[in-house]
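ingest -> fold -> write
write: protein_1
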Amino acid sequence: MKKWKYLSMTALLGSTLLIGACGGETSGEGTNSGNGMEQTENGEAQLTGSVSGDGSSTVAPITEALVEEYKAVQPNVQVSVGVSGTGGGFEKFIAGETDFSNASREMKEEEARALEEAGIEFTKFEIAYDGITVVVNAENDWAKNLTIEQLKEIWIEDGKAKKWSDIDPSWPDEEIVYYAPGTDSGTFDYFDEVVLEGEDLVRSAQLSEDDNVIVQGVASDPYAIGFFGYAYYLENKDRLKAVKVNGVEPTREAIEKGEYTPLSRPLFVFVNNAKIKDSEAFYDFMKFLLENAGDMAEAVGYIRLPEEKYEEGLKKLDAIK
């Protein structure tokens, strides 16, 4: 996974992060082993513990960047974030291996059922908006605007190799090269739901849970096409072109207003309620995340929620505690 640069974010948030995080400190002992308070050399109480998460590569830029900022405020709390895709993250969450799970789609019924069977109560938090962005190579000067029907024609398996000229006779008589998120990805699931409508994705597509692999693939082939979260396009817009969908360009404004349909979606973090109750460190990190997710979402290329949604999230978090 690409390492993001945080210098601009630090300048953006400044002392706001310090104030927000200090509000989450507590003098009580956490009931989880290794989660609580310890005395520093100058006699001040310092929060300690560990927090683990996994899941969506789309959500990861937000949570990874927040982890970096959180280190400056709570250096004795170790927070780790894996990237195995939304589905892979839920598998670890269901197994009780993680405290939180990043997701770029809603939880499936079978996943919720598995959590219930495992005796795990959870809470869902929205943290940002995203727009799945369809991208082509920088040299592609023909596929500037695609309808949902054309996307279906391009991406649904029909038993034959497809050329760009099959979509529009005026386009190159060259085979389409496909790059897409892996099947454990929430982005794949969302695209499957709103574009493929349950039909099989083209078998020749090269799949990866790492969106940077898709970036590299599309950037290196003039006849390639791919899709992933909006932030990855912004980070690589000098190498790729974003395709309009139904005449609408993916922009912050279009995604926020719901005009970029049907590829706009919310992004989530799911938490294990029992681990919030047992761990002061986990509670403090989640409070920090919800207080600063909007600023960080904007900093890494996503779209913040209305402020009242973050306030609702903080109330939900306190209700768990």
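write: protein_2
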Amino acid sequence: MPHNTDRIQTTHVGSLPRTPELLEANNRFQAGEIDLPQLGEALDEGVKEIVRTQREIGIDIVNDGEYGHTTSGAVDYGAWWNYSFHRLGGLTPTDEDRWNDAEKHRSSPGHIVLTSFPDRRDRERFRDAYEDPTAGVLAHRNTVSQPKITGPLTYTGQEAVAGDIRRVKDAMALNGATQGFVAALSPGSCARVKNEYYATDEELVYACADVMREEYKAIVDEGLTVQIDDPSIAESWDQINPEPTVEDYLDFTRLRVEALNYALRDLPQEQIRFHLCWGSWHGPHTTDLELKYLVDLMLTINAQGYSFEASSPRHGHEWKVWEEHKLPEGKVVYPGMVSHSTNGVEHPELVAQRIEQYASVVGRENVIASTDCGLGGRLHPQIALAKLGSLVEGARIASQRLF
């Protein structure tokens, strides 16, 4: 994960649009019509193509598009999390979809309880918009059932993650890419599955840390960077009803950070990047917790780089947070310069200006231009690739000014 030396480098958060062929293979795999090796045949070709596309656009730090993370369809806001259901033991399937099934859990002072999606505070505030199928807030996503934890968690994804690693490394070699990453679920986000086995929140989160560590280690042992996907650090704020105090929320979140650092112990920081976001559905996000409350806790995570939303309408102003919160020596940031939450393709000049804002507060060598969140499952493929092109062109313009 090198710092910039002569130009602004570019990357993205991970998920990229799947091809129709891969979407069909995913559907057949989830229906039990094909097994993992047969799905792998579709993945082999898909990853070669998406890495080639990234390199042709000019992306420096590439990945497999998260193609190995099973998706439910062209629109899927949860593949980053749902893929783990195929890689963990101790789960029992249910027919519950937490985006649609309301559980009216309420928090009490000092005691945090996560509610289901329909009972979240942003959804309560904009109930009509969220439930209007023509409004575009939740688009036309397929129903995805989440399992529950009924026994001790184990990691069963060795074959799957080995396939992710092999495919991206092979595709990098074919396309001249020297830097690559693979995304993996954080313990805190893993622990959001309904739990009927572990006695305490702490036991659950640390059990998730133990199993997900196997995936992190497999990735870094093969020379790739692991990106820890952890919307739970920021997004869970909206999932608590009624709104807690910031202090209580940070205590709740600190356990998840400590468990993540436990899972990352002894792994090389230069091969670890952390992704924070406030949830990738296209809602108003008026109940997002501001970055200024989260940044210091985020910086305690044992990663070299920190990825976060920086161009969305709710968080585009937060570059100024870094005027008061100094980036530690040797660290880098991956601010999102283009957003997953709008169909408008950002002008390269706007991208350049955003990069320059971050360079002014953390240093030009420490800014790697990225996306707010994954573009796959959120945007049409044509728009997603156009945004990556604008990102690269904006980085080129900024580089001319900064170096």
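write: annotation protein_2
The radius of gyration is 20 Å.
The chain has a mean pLDDT of 93.
pipeline exit 0
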